[in-house]
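User: My instructor asked us to take a sequence, write out its structure as tokens, and then describe one feature of it. I'm not sure where to start. Here is the sequence I was given:
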Amino acid sequence: MGERWALLVIRELMMGPRRFGDLRGDLCGVSANVLTQRLEGLEASGIVRRRKLPPPASVQVYELTDWGYEIEPIFMVLGGWAARSPRHDPTLPISGVSMMLSFKTMFDARRAGKSEMTLGFVMDDDRFIVKIRRGALKARRGEIENCDVIVHAVPPNVAAAVYGKVPPSVLEAAGEMRLEGDAAVFERFIDFFHLPEKAVA
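Assistant: Let's start with the prediction itself. The structure tokens for your sequence are:
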């Protein structure tokens, strides 16, 4: 776990299986050789496994084992702690998986109350579904269907709306976001997330 990139590889697998090329694309700066070494090490440790998707995909993917998924609470604690950094900049590049994990970390069930909603997020080639039911938030990678609203935007622009509180209408006018469905649902969703106060340096 102390190897460089190991935790970031695990993070990118939190929402489901990924192809090697997808992992490398979302882990800016990692070389193919280093990524191969990290995946092999995590596989040897029982945290990651390889499998081949059935036809018509027939491609090899990497995914977390059941034990590997048990680390998720640690990522949530680390994420909440990092967000309090005086130097935390929510406008920096972020992956779709990191965006989904941030939703799980920063979700305020008290603000959500009895709200029930299903949102789809289309971020480049990634598709995610976020459901809020009975004061709990669940997020997963998957096909978008039966959503109240679908948000089309790159992760930094989603972060700008959710955490920077930039009105979605402003992002839409600038061509940086497109909402499909009930825009009011996304506007309510945004109110369920607020960054914590900064730590005193």
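For the description part of your assignment, you could build on this observation: The beta strands are 48-52, 60-64, 117-123, 126-133, 136-141, 149-152, 178-181. Try explaining in your own words what that tells you about the chain.
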